[in-house]
Amino acid sequence: MPKFILYIMLLCASPMTLAQTAYKTVKDTILLKSKIDNMSKQTNSIESDFVQVKNLSMLSEKITSKGHFWFQKQNNLRWEYSEPYKYTIVINKDKILIKDEGKVKKYDMNSNKVFKEINDIMISCVNGDILGSNKFKITYFENDKFYKLELSPNVKGMKESLKQINMYFDKNVSSVVKLDMIEPGDDATTIDFSNKKINATITPEKFMLK
Amino acid sequence: MQQSLLKNLCLSSLFITLIISCSPTHNYTLKRTELVTESDIHSIINKDNSLLYKAKINLYNHYYSGLIILKQTSPGTSHLVFITELGIKMFDFEIRNNQFKLIYVFEPLNKPNILRLLENDLKLILLQNLLNQEAKLFERNDNDKRIYQTTNNKLKNYYFVKANTKTVEKTIVKGKLFIKEKVDYIYNDSLIAKQIKLKHKGIIRLKIELNKLSTNL
After folding, report:
1. Is position B17 within any domain?
2. Domain residues for B76?
3. Under CATH, domain A3-203 is a member of which superfamily?
4. Chain A to chain B, count of Cβ pairs less than 8 Å apart?
5. What is the rounded average pLDDT for all residues in chain B?
C-alpha cells in the first residue's frame, strides 16, 4: 500500500486544537517515514466526519462546509457534504459519480481534464501517491503535539494549481488529523477530520450512487 | 398573376406582423434614452454583504458545479470567485468600473473560448452591460414594467425591470431575428437575487444556474 494512503487515513484522526509550541525540523525522518508506512499498511479503510474551511485570502472570506468521508483501498473515496449544501462525490476507481440536488451524474475520469486534475490531487493525498511519486519536495516538522509534513510540488502542471500541502499527524502517527491545501495566491482549503473509524467495515454500496 | 401578388403580399404581411409581435418592446412606448445608474436599477452585487451561490454550469457535455462568491471589496471594485465544492478555486474575476479582469483560472479551464464565453455571460448576469450605459427606456401605462434596451456586440439586450422595486426580472439578448440568450431572476424579500438562470438558445449549449445559499459568509 502506498505510504500516502497512510497519510490520508491519518487524516481521519481525532480533532485537534492547534494551540501548541512552534514547529521545528524532525531529526529522525527515517523513523517518522517508517511509522507512517506502518500506519498505511495497517489501514484498509477510513470513515470520518470532516469540516472543510475555504479561506479566500484576497476577499477575507471563509466558507465552511461539513460532511462525512469514506476511504477504502484501492482508490475508493466518498465525500458527502451535508452543510450548507447537499453534495456527494464518489470516486470508484476510474469512475466519478456525483450526486447534486438529487441528480446523479457519472463521468469517466479520463474524459474530463478538470476532474482528472482534481482527482489526481485528491487521490494522491488519500492514497499516498504524493510522497511516493517524487512530485513533491517534502519537509518534516514537529512540535509537542503533531508532526507536520510540508509538500511542495516540483512538477509543472501542479505548481500552477497548488503551492503547498500540509499534512498533520498526531504524535503516535495513528492518523492524519488535518490537511491544508494552499494555492498560488495563498487561498487555502483546510480539512479537519474527526470521529474516525479505522478499518471499520464499509459496504460496497458506499462507493456507488443511484 | 394577380393571385400570386396577393399571396406574396399576405405572406409578407404575416412575416412583418410576426417580427413586430416578437419584438420584446411590442406594446411598449419609447420614452427616452438615459444613462442607467444604480439609482435606476437594483444591482445584483450587494454593497453590504458577500453573496454565496450554489452554481451549476452545463457547458456542452461538461457539467461543473460549485460555489460562487460575489463580494464588493472596495467602492467600484467587486470579485466573482468560483470554487468547487471540494474547495478548489476555478476562476476569480475582478470587476472594476464595469471591466472584467481575470485574476486566476484553474489551468485546465484556461482556454480563451471558454473564458470569453464565461466572461460575457457573467457580465450579462451581473447587469454590467446595462449599468452606467446609455439605454433606451420603454414603458407602458397599464403595468409597472419597464424595459431598458442597450446594444452590445451588435446584439440587442432587453432588460425587463419591475418599476417599484427596480429589480431586473428578465434579460433577453436578441439578434436580428432570434433570441440568443435569456436570463431569469427571482428575488427574496430583501431584493437579493435568490435564483438566477441563464440559458443560451441556438448553437451554444451553455446553461448557468445560481441558487443563493442561506448561510452567511
Report:
1. no
2. 26-212
3. Lipoprotein localisation LolA/LolB/LppX (2.50.20.10)
4. 82
5. 86
- Count of domains in chain B? 1
Q: What is the pLDDT of residue A110?
A: 74
Helices (H), B23-167: 112-125
Instruction: Please tell me the predicted confidence (pLDDT) of residue B217.
Output: 52
| Domain parsing of chain A, residue ranges | 3-203
pLDDT over 80 at B187, yes or no: yes
Which chain B residues have a beta carbon less than 8 Å from that of A117?
106-108
Q: How many CA atoms lie within 13 A of A174 on its CB side?
A: 13
Interchain contact B107–A (C-beta under 8 A): yes
The shortest CB-CB distance from B108 to any of A89, A105, A114 is to A114
ipTM of the complex: 0.75
- CATH, residue B201: 2.50.20
A100: chain B residues, CB-CB within 8 Å:
56, 65
B9 belongs to a structural domain: no
pLDDT tens digits, residue range A145-158? 999 999 898 877 77
Distance from CA of B105 to the nearest CA of A (A): 9
Option in A59, A63, A118 nearest B79 (CB): A59
Confidence class for position B107, pLDDT limits 50, 70, 90? confident
Distance from CA of B87 to the nearest CA of A (A): 6
A158-196 pLDDT, tens digit each: 777 788 989 898 898 877 889 899 988 889 999 999 999
Does any CB of chain B come closer than 8 Å to the CB of residue A88?
no
Residue B142 lies in a domain: yes
Q: Is residue B32 part of a domain?
A: yes
Residue of A82, A86, A118, A191 to mutate when probing chain B, most B C-beta within 10 A: A118
Q: What is the mean pLDDT of residues A133-141?
A: 85
- pLDDT tens sequence across B15-64: 554 444 467 888 888 999 999 998 999 999 888 888 999 999 888 777 78
> Do residue A87 and residue B85 have CB atoms under 8 angstroms apart?
yes
Cβ distance of B87 and A52 shorter than 8 Å: yes
